[in-house]
Amino acid sequence: MAPSSLSSRFHDSLTRQAFRSYLAEFISTFFYVFLVIGSSMSSRKLMADGRLLEPSSLVVGAIANAFALSSVVFLAWDISGGHVNPAVTFGRVVGGHISVSTALFYWLAQIIASVIACLFLKILVVGVHVPTYTIAVEMTGFGASMLEGVLTFGLVYTVYAAKDPKRGPLGWMGALAIGSIAGASVLAAGPFSGGSMNPACAFGSASIAGSFKNQAVYWVGPLIGAAIAGLLYDRVGYPSQTADSISGIAEGDRV
């Protein structure tokens, strides 16, 4: 790739609009993680015997995930694309919708926001442990990673469909679809792998809780699933708009 092209892409990542996008990702990821992890802490607090797994806590987690993700995606969509998830960002990179340099800044904003959100919860809610994503004893690390990958594939594929310009501008239905598949995924996989689908959320809670056990599960699987979803939707199923000759980013997806 020509040096001038690389320089142009990096310059695009340092524009005022780009920094607005990073800020939007930071804010939306912060509130997403704060609400999802906070709802888990709340449900455990209300359990008299302190059990970690109970049907009601699974439902609470799914509802919180669906509502929180729908809301923050809708809020940040027109500014940053409302990724709120390093896996979604990776999927958009693979699909050629944003540059690698921009994606790295997105990842940085998302991860820092997740850590700060979990830190806030630890400071504000004294005496309540910040929960981390764990895999069930019936699951192997490989199996859990595969499960997270399949779920993330569905999430990223839905994001692509919601953002497809052929479907018109994103309305509240698009954001609701993204949140709904996330909530359904938690119901399907919560007891087995946690249903994270979000490396930043998993990393933030693990860093504050001080336990990185099986952390690779929540990175490898989701990133692979997101990459396959991006390639399949944009290259096979529904070819995207022609990419810009300099940045390689479709005009409708520029950030």
UniProtKB/TrEMBL annotation:
It is a multi-pass membrane protein. GO terms for cellular component: membrane. Keywords: Membrane, Repeat, Transmembrane, Transmembrane helix, Transport. GO terms for molecular function: water channel activity. The chain crosses the membrane at residues 20-37, 58-77, 142-162, 169-189, 216-233. InterPro entries: Aquaporin-like, Aquaporin_transptr, MIP, MIP_CS. SUPFAM superfamilies: Aquaporin-like (SSF81338). It is found in: Membrane. Its main location: membrane. Belongs to the MIP/aquaporin (TC 1.A.8) family. TIP (TC 1.A.8.10) subfamily. This is Putative aquaporin TIP5-1.
